[in-house]
Amino acid sequence: MRIFSKLTGSLLALAILAACTPESSTTAPAAAVQAPAAAAPQQAVAPAATPAATQAPAVVEVCRTCATVVAITPVVEQGQTTGVGAVIGGIVGGVAGNQVGGGSGQQIATVAGVVGGALLGNNIERNRNAVSYTDITVEMDTGERQTIRVDTPVTFGVGAAVNVQGTSISLR
Fold first, then answer.
1. What residue ranges in 24-159 does DSSP mark as E strands?
2. Do both 138 and 124 map to the same domain?
3. Can you tell me the distance from the alpha carbon of 119 to that of 94, in angstroms, rounded to the nearest whole number?
4. Distance CA 97, CA 117 (A)
5. What is the pLDDT of residues 105-148, one digit of tens each?
């Protein structure tokens, strides 16, 4: 019986030590025993599916009136002449030239006044009939480019965010 009690005591001590060893041991064999147990859950875990992979791509609606100014070009078209400016200028120039000098000098001044007045009158008529406007080139959010002609002064610059509706343009 003595052997049995020693054997029971030894087994009890061994069981207590075995139960305490994995948590408090810092030896290499205990760490080696724990490593496979720790590695097993990492290998068994499958990567989680991302929500984007399971859902259809979101539809992004593009603003059809939104644009960005890419160029502003002031334009001046020369006006048309009818000849009225040249005639009036020639008459005024001839009268003014006739007032200068006397004799053949007066005749030369009159001819010079008529020619100069006609040229000046023609230029005045052309400038008076000139048309000024601004071409604004925009890139729509849809990707297309559009040029809008405006007669009023532009209050924004290149890079401005604008709304385009038909031929009218305004800041966003």
1. 66-77, 131-140, 145-150
2. no
3. 12
4. 10
5. 888 988 898 999 999 998 898 888 888 999 999 999 999 999 99
Tell me which H or E stretch contains 123: helix 104-128
The reply to whether 153 and 87 lie within a common domain is: no
Domain count, the chain: 2
Which residues span the domain enclosing 168?
Answer: 63-78+131-172
Residue 11 forms part of a structural domain: no
- Indicate the angle between helix axes 84-98 and 104-128, nearest 10 degrees: 150
Specify if 33 maps to a domain: no
- The token duo for 30 is 């205990």
**Residue among 81, 115, 114, 120 at smallest CA distance from 98:** 114
Amino acid at 172: R
pTM value is: 0.48
Contact 139, 145 (CB under 8 A): yes
